Amino acid sequence: MERNLTHIALFAALIAVLGLVPKIDLVSGVPITAQSMGIMLCGTVLGARRGALAVLLFLALVALGLPLLSGGRGGIGVFMGPSMGYLVGFPIAAFVTGLIVEKWQGPIAVAAFAGAVIGGIVVLSGCGIVGFRVYSVLIAEGVADAKTFTWAQAVAAASPFIIGDVIKAGLAAGITRGLARVRPASVLSRS
């Protein structure tokens, strides 16, 4: 039990530290950050349940106002901005990533890469697209001349993230594989 709590807290801190890597702001208002790699690592290393709990702990700290998101953002207001779908999708992505790594019987690197791509890119991008579309509709309803994005425009707004996310998935798989070689017991998704 204590070991699980320690790992959950450690990976919540890892996501926060990855927020120190400077963000790249896009026109859509959704920044490119290193924190999505932390989400992937939560799943690949901790597994589905513990990975999702680490992300939920991180998001609870953000909601309390700690400036842990990339660019020093925090507070409940970030859950109402253009990146709200990504934030809501963080624990879902970590869970799906971890579930794939837990169930995949092949080599850890392949399982981690597949999990990171499916959970950390497909699922997270899907949540982000839905959130961006909902955000644009809410803004348009509140402001007369605000533009509502179509589904196609919301997908197009998410497309600049794909190349970087594939690189992050590869890094997450490599880190997970390295941990499995050096300290197999630390990769809880396989224990």
Automatic annotation (TrEMBL):
Pfam families: BioY (PF02632). The chain crosses the membrane at residues 53-72, 84-101, 107-132. It is a multi-pass membrane protein. Keywords: Cell membrane, Membrane, Transmembrane, Transmembrane helix, Transport. This is Biotin transporter. InterPro entries: BioY. One of its GO terms (molecular function) is biotin transmembrane transporter activity. The keyword Membrane applies. GO terms for cellular component: plasma membrane. Belongs to the BioY family. It is found in: Cell membrane.
